[in-house]
Amino acid sequence: MRKGSAKVVRPAGIANRQPVVAESLTTIRALCDNQSSAVNFFLRLFLCQLALFQYLCNLK
Hints:
- The chain has a domain of 39 residues.
- The longest helix is centred in the last third of the chain and has 21 residues.
- The chain contains two helices and no strands.
- By secondary structure, it is mainly alpha-helical.
């Protein structure tokens, strides 16, 4: 992994009370930088599903 590629960036839709999800999203993004295109595709698909789930949970 490149140095500095795993900095924590919280997406706008993620509440501060759930930092674990935000950090897992960042970790997945860092993993996506270093994988083949097929693995990258599935990691990004999972990332989108996780982000959508988080968004729906915050709609209350």
